[in-house]
Amino acid sequence: MSAKCDAKKVVLSVGEVAKRSGVSVATLHFYEQKGLIHSQRNTGNQRRYSRDVLRRVAIIKVAQRTGIPLEQIGKALSVLPPGQNADQQHWQQMSEQWKTELDARIAQLTDLRDQLSMCIGCGCLSMAHCPLRNPQDKLAAQGSGAHFYPTSEELEEPER
């Protein structure tokens, strides 16, 4: 039997995966509950992970650091069969999916930063002229919670 075949049969306990990946056992359980990673149970009903889970956890952590929601990470990982590592082509496909969204988010944050600097400079937070205000509570239609303000080009001129 070759070393390559032996390596494929290596399974890791949840504690080993946590230690090697740098995430907690609870996080691994959460990822599994969300379908991002998969385990098998041994005869003692303990979780055992194949080595490919280490790569999956690394991808999840990189994507989370860039602000990609877990739902989108799950969709991207769903193209990989369980037990298969993401290769260069898979990573390229995943990163391309996220690139457009990240570019848009960067543009929004840059615009917000620039608008915020203007308000800090004047300190007025004028409801009539401040570019950060929410005219006529337009963002209420997007539901409760925080939302990105539109870019300065999207803002309407204040009513006079």
**Helix content range of the residues, please?**
40-55%
What's the SSE pattern?
HEHHEEHHH
Number of helices: 6
How would you name the oligomeric state of the polypeptide chains in this document?
Answer: single chain
Mean pLDDT: 77
The appropriate CATH architecture of the largest domain is Orthogonal Bundle
Total count of strands:
3
Overall number of domains: 2
- Which sheet architecture does the biggest sheet show? 3 strands, antiparallel
Instruction: Measure the end-to-end span.
Output: 81 Å
Q: Unreliable stretches, pLDDT < 50, 5 or more residues?
A: 1-7
Overall body shape: elongated
The percent range for strand residues is: 5-15%
Give the class from helix and strand content and strand pairing. Answer: mainly alpha
Rg is 23 Å
What do we call the CATH topology of the largest domain?
Multidrug-efflux Transporter Regulator, Chain: A, Domain 2
Written description of the protein model:
With 160 residues, the chain is mostly helical. The protein has 2 domains: 1-74, Orthogonal Bundle (Multidrug-efflux Transporter Regulator, Chain: A, Domain 2); 87-124. It has helices at residues 3-9, 14-21, 25-33, 52-65, 70-77, 88-122, and strands spanning 11-13, 40-41, 47-50. Strands 1-3-2 form a 3-stranded antiparallel β-sheet. β2 and β3 (47-50) form a beta hairpin. The longest helix is centred in the middle third of the chain and has 35 residues, at 88-122.
